[in-house]
Write the structure tokens for this entry.
Amino acid sequence: MDDEDVANRKVSFRKCLEHLSGAGKAIGVLTSGGDAQGMNAAVRAVVRMGIYVGAKVYFIYEGYQGMVDGGRNIVEASWESVSSILQVGGTIIGSARCKAFRTREGRLRAAHNLVQRGITNLCVIGGDGSLTGANIFRKEWSGLLEELAQNGEMDKEQVQKHSYLNVVGMVGSIDNDFCGTDMTIGTDSALHRIIEVVDAIMTTAQSHQRTFVLEVMGRHCGYLALVSALACGADWVFLPESPPEEGWQENMCIKLSENRARKKRLNIIIVAEGAIDTQNKPITSEQIKELVVKQLGYDTRVTILGHVQRGGTPSAFDRILASRMGVEAVVALLQATPETPACVVSLSGNQAVRLPLVECVQMTQDVQRAMDERRFKDAVRLRGRSFESNLNTYKRLAIKLPDDQIVKSNCNVAIINVGAPAAGMNAAVRSAVRVGIADGHKMLAIYDGFEGFAKGQIKEIGWGDVGGWTGQGGSILGTKRTLPGKSLEDIAAQMRKHSINALLIVGGFETCDRIKQSASGTKRRVFIIETMGGYCGYLANMGGLAAGADAAYIFEEPFDIRDLQKATSRPCSASAYLHSGTWTRTTVMTTESNVEHLTEKMKTTIQRGLVLRNESCNENYTTDFIYQLYSEEGKGVFDCRKNVLGHMQQGGAPSPFDRNFGTKISARAMQWISTKLKEALGKGKRFMSDDSICVLGISKRNLLFQPVAQLRQETDFEHRIPKEQWWLKLRPLMKILAKYKVSYEVSDSDQLEPMHHRGHEEPAAI
């Protein structure tokens, strides 16, 4: 990048700030309805982004009730007031039901309280009811102000100055029951709570050969129950959107007894609290227990999770999601005009989008109407392609047809794990094996990676052999980082010997798990953490965003001693990011060094720091070097501690996300393989075309098969990373929330997208 380009970027940077200027504007943020983990991360992002662009931001305590009551319930927020809340569950500003806001008189009082503080921008974090109330308030706003003026509570100048109200919503709901977004804030954390309980229950159930009926939240939405069932390989699941067919009692008992006959020592049944039958009559966990005891005589226990699912620390996913949504919400408010309709900030694949609030609420209500009218297929369809895909995948993996009913393909499909072990690999293998068997293939397992492949460590693997694999960490098949290399001839010989028609490879250059680190609890101390990832800075960057880090050093953004120590105003390296479907370049401006930034921070009430370093970000600026530099430069101001996380990041049980992503992506891969094999059936065709060797992964918003030949052009093989990384566009977000001055474009589109917009590809949502 030459000097002229840098100068142009500086001009663009200034224009960006002017465009997003919040000077003279006031934003109110409130949480309403049921609480959800991650709400605090959203509140933090709204407050800090608002202050960053020059706006005043106000806490509205106790939701709409606080807005109606006014007084001390509406308080200006400061940068420090949202420190150390990223990792806290619930909502620090409270949430309450408010009957008064449902009346015009209540909304009149709320409008008066907001205008008194100059608030004409609302960020509402809640469910569909909360967002509907906000939209009604927005529509009535001008009429409410006129009425206040007529009553003598406001002059005409105030009415004119605050003539319209902008509203942006973020969905905070553990049920994931809002149409228009792939994931709502709190859902991933709730899944963590459920899976933790399921994993614990499975050990005691196996010991005593018990059946457990687990009831999870979801009065009107079965997402938690469905995804939990996928994640743990449950024997049966009850959902409000998809009631069991008539005669389900007998079918379920047959399924449970068949699993026991396969020497499975436990049964898990998951029930959504709103589960119903085809006549809309409730199906309760106690009913199911009584049925199992009466028909099968199994020792059966019921566990009702209740509000445990709402509690606890938010997951890394929810922290990142809420932070992205919060920043995007502020940008949407600043870009809004009097004609801009209320919108919802949503997640589609790995992209942030804005959708019309009214349409999203309408579709959400349409789902409930379909269930009330017993149009259950419509209810599943209206929930979205992701929900429908989850349900279809669960059915394929949970129920095995008798062997004489499966049409044989006469094809052998092998599956192998390569590269570093990663949580979710076993779930992917289980899914592939069962989908392959259902498609009529003979499934072969290859042990110990390419090395085992060359040595002939290949065995047939059956449906029951992969039972219970979803919750296991590491790789049961075994995996090594060795590449085929000199063993290609031996591998080819083994493929001929075992008549392998297709090969499914689970792995890659490096497979990364998510980390969560917090440096809270100690004053005047900076923690320096080294993460894994090879040359890929994803873990350091996203871990830093999830933990509220002050800095994250990565290979993709080169740095030198000036960035570490001396204050400069030079541009940092250019980072690539995707905008409106085109790769462009942006420059992140560094206006102060990390050490000086932390020194200034210690003078405030936030007296701690967190720095992450990717293990291969720089061969000279090692973790020890950075630790010593910070220790020396911070003498008398702060002390330092360092920690190298190492292989603990690859250990442990896989998260719900990894289990379900591994399950779904592997099932989709096997479907692709089956399609290719059918195309070649009877033609004697050899797969020599580029599209016969593909990599399946998320691209923007969809699961996409990309030929390896195409990926060669997009890959940095020396460092084993893509040439362009989508997540680099989120890098400035971490810096903004840590109070660095940087330029940042938040959304992939600053326009509202219609609800009916859906691509032809398969959705990437989990």
